[in-house]
Structure formats: structure tokens, C-alpha cells
Design goal:
Elements lengths: L1 H20 L2 E4 L2 E6 L3 E20 L6 E20 L5 E6 L5 E9 L5 E24 L3
Antiparallel strand pairs: 1-3, 2-3, 3-7, 4-5, 4-6, 4-7
């Protein structure tokens, strides 16, 4: 019986950790968007951030190919911004360097519903933010 309780306790702890990791806690967050079908940007700043979250930007025109530039900056901690292809694979990622602005560009394919997806992972991130700029390269039509 003791083994069974220990086993259940471990499963419960794993489930709690999973849900905590799949959630972004941010303080002082501000978001600005200029989302249009052919080009646009998403800007998010924060005072503090911890955890991970997948965000979506609906653009329409499923399967379209985008040229994307990701810019990341924070003063303290760690942050990784991953742009995701239609199947969920990482198209490209940018990793923070505290005190520096870091950018990277690449091609990203929208999913079948025309949604751009990206993941943010933060560990002790302070006074930072990111910007995603995109422009449609080709349509799936």
C-alpha cells in the first residue's frame, strides 16, 4: 500500500510540474500588435517572466510561408523565443543574452488554419521583451 501511495504522489507531482511548465507568469506585461494578412508585428514587454507558453497569431491563408524576424532583449535571466512551423517543429529560435539585443530571421510556414505559432520560455527573466516582424512570402493557393 505504501508503494502505491508513493507512486501516486510521484504521478501527482509530475502532473503539477507539467502544468506549471506549460504556463507563463508575467508581471507588468504590455502587448502591442499590428496584425495584417500580408505583414505585421507583435511586440510584448514585461517586468518579470517565468515559465513557458505557446502563443498564436491568426493570419488566415493556411499553409502560407512567412519571412520572420524575431528580436529579443532582457536585462536579467534567460529567455528563448521559438518560431514554430505548421507541424510544431521549431523553424528557428533566438536565445537571450542579458543586456544585449539579439535577433534572428528565418522562414516559417503557417498551419492549415493560417495561424502563426511561437513558444516563449523564460527563467528568471527581468525587464525585457520581444518583437516578431513578419511578411508573407508566398501563399498556399
Amino acid at each position: 500500500m505504501c508503494r502505491k501511495r508513493r507512486y501516486l504522489a510521484l504521478i501527482g507531482a509530475a502532473v503539477i510540474l507539467f502544468f506549471l511548465q506549460a504556463c507563463m507568469l508575467a508581471s507588468g506585461e504590455r502587448t502591442s500588435t499590428d496584425v495584417r494578412p500580408d505583414a505585421g508585428n507583435v511586440t510584448r514587454t514585461f517586468l518579470g517572466a517565468e515559465g513557458s507558453e505557446v502563443y498564436t497569431v491568426p493570419l488566415g491563408d493556411g499553409g502560407a510561408l512567412l519571412q520572420v524576424i524575431a528580436i529579443l532583449e532582457l536585462q536579467q535571466g534567460e529567455m528563448r523565443l521559438e518560431l514554430l512551423n505548421a507541424g510544431g517543429s521549431v523553424a528557428f529560435a533566438v536565445q537571450s543574452r542579458p543586456g544585449d539585443q539579439v535577433s534572428r530571421s528565418g522562414m516559417v510556414r503557417l498551419d492549415e488554419n493560417g495561424v502563426l505559432r511561437y513558444r516563449v520560455v523564460a527563467r528568471g527573466a527581468r525587464d525585457g521583451g520581444y518583437q516578431i516582424l513578419y511578411q508573407r512570402v508566398q501563399s498556399n493557393q
